[in-house]
Amino acid sequence: MTLKLGTEIPGTSAEGNITTIWVPAIKNIKAPTIIELEAGTDISNYVMLGGWSFDPSQDTVSDQRENTVQDFGAPGRKSAGDISIEVIDNTNTEHEEQNEAVTIMHEGASGYIVRRRGMATDAPLASGQKLTVVSVKCGEKKVINPDANTMIRSQIPLFAQAPGWESETAVLTAA
């Protein structure tokens, strides 16, 4: 099939269409349940625009044969890369009671970052939705020096841990 020149391809704005949830426990990261996600904390309102950094990569296993002049390859080890999340930080402010992201993702905390793209943040969780699920351990909070016209915020480094991650390949299940 070829795409006809001039065919308009629709797109979906990222604005308001990303949900981020901190989940304390997930039994199977390939098929998290609605109950597991509802036991988590929706931190979407704390995450800064562009504040999610997750850059998985995969090495190549070299496959060089002596009977050919071509080099081949196979999929190798995967890395989650440098993972972090930049969030609103209400420490010492009049809004200190609304500081869940910083509070639950304290240094040493383990859990799962679950992200859903392409649907309004207030759309309900439903079976069949595709998710990114990353099992992480939190590092030391890094206070971000403010620029003009910015909110007080911090960056939390995250470290991938077993069982690893599913990059928009996890499918939400009802049970």
Automatic annotation (TrEMBL):
Provenance organism: Bifidobacterium longum subsp. longum 1-6B
A Pfam family the protein falls into: Phage_TTP_16
Taxonomic superkingdom: Bacteria
Lineage: Bacteria, Bacillati, Actinomycetota, Actinomycetes, Bifidobacteriales
Name the record gives this protein: Gp28
